[in-house]
Design a protein that fits this description.
This protein is of the alpha/beta class. The protein contains 14 helices and 11 strands. It has a single domain, classed as Rossmann fold, CATH 3.40.50.150. It is globular and about 55 Å long. The termini are far apart.
Length: 344
């Protein structure tokens, strides 16, 4: 989508406050996995909520993820090794230091029935076993079938409209980095509300488009993640959105995974072109026409990349943790973690 097309596109209404949005960024594309096509990002002048345009339809998502998302071959043994002992004090401290606590399943307690909507490869369900909770998953990506077959996890491949796990009501429903992928998140949350037990709650994590990194890196912010991320929330627009659609917020804070920062510092240099997968995200090294752009990157960008490439060194790892925890304390972290319950 070029600038002219973006200007001519009908501006959507903001899902948070219903204000007419305006074009903000044009010529955005999938800079991770190479899905072809250009998109724009529109911004609400009132609450700064943003939306990807054109907005994909829910019916388009399974094919999109099956073709481009990196789950075609899931390493089952590696998945099992990731589980560890998440209920221990050491694991809680490690999550805080690394910023990996932006996951709703860690709010589970023993005996809870927990639904992870958009559970991906099912790591959360394996962790819920360690909390002695009953884990259920729902995932649109058909690639996850291989995990279901191998580990016999309770994952429904499909939609909430299929009435998965009939008769089961949940103490906790988790959406980890999912809400931003949904074309109509208000309708989804309304459907999920019907699956909560009395007194049940939801925990959601999604990128913060008002974060320090979003402000600093602009178009190069990694969490635009076009075209997979459709809605780009900030704390203000999230509060308006939940209140408008019948939810009360029990808690809200920001968390920045240190790994996200490492990827962010590399992204402005390690670019790709429209329609080409990016080795930063796929793990495949390949020459692209944008290597000239990388060589022409600013000294500052190259210095940030050099820091990120050695971020596992103890001193740098410590500096990164201290910096990100300070950013989180200011409410400027890259991911919002919010707990909500029905208002009525």
């Amino acid at each position: 989508m070029n600038n002219e097309v973006a200007a001519e596109t009908e501006a959507p209404g903001c899902i948070a406050c219903d204000t007419r949005m305006a074009a903000h960024y044009a010529s955005m594309f999938d800079d991770r996995y190479g899905c072809p096509g250009y998109f724009a990002i529109f911004r609400c002048p009132a609450c700064q909520h943003m939306q990807t345009v054109p907005l994909l339809a829910e019916s388009e998502l399974p094919a999109l993820y099956a073709k481009y998302y990196p789950r075609r071959h899931i390493d089952i043994d590696a998945l099992l090794r990731q589980v560890g002992k998440p209920a221990t004090l050491r694991a809680r401290i490690d999550r805080w230091l690394s910023g990996t606590g932006n996951q709703g399943q860690y709010a589970a307690t023993e005996g809870m029935a927990v639904l992870d909507y958009g559970c991906g490869a099912g790591l959360s369900l394996l962790e819920l076993r360690e909390f002695n909770a009953e884990g259920y998953g729902l995932e649109a990506d058909p690639n996850v079938r291989q995990v279901v077959d191998a580990l016999k996890l309770r994952i429904h491949i499909g939609s909430i409209d299929d009435d998965p796990f009939p008769g089961v009501r949940f103490d906790l429903i988790v959406l980890n980095q999912v809400l931003e992928h949904i074309p109509a998140p208000d309708r989804l949350l309304g459907k999920l509300a019907g699956r909560l037990k009395a007194g049940g709650r939801m925990v959601l994590a999604f990128p913060n488009s008002a974060s320090l990194y979003a402000r600093r890196f602009g178009r190069d912010w990694i969490n635009w993640h076009i075209p997979y991320h459709l809605h780009h929330f900030n704390p203000r627009s999230a509060r308006l959105f939940f209140a408008r659609h019948g939810w009360r917020i029990l808690s809200m804070r920001t968390i920045t995974p240190n790994l996200w920062t490492v990827l962010q510092l590399r992204a402005p240099v390690e670019r790709t072109s429209m329609g080409q997968p990016n080795g930063l995200w796929t793990g495949e090294r390949r020459a692209t026409p944008t290597e000239q752009t990388s060589r022409a990157a600013s000294r500052q960008a190259l210095a940030m990349q050099a820091f990120a490439l050695r971020a596992n060194q103890p001193l740098r790892r410590s500096l990164l943790a201290v910096f990100n925890r300070a950013v989180d304390a200011l409410g400027l972290g890259d991911s919002i973690l919010v707990t909500i319950a029905p208002a009525a």
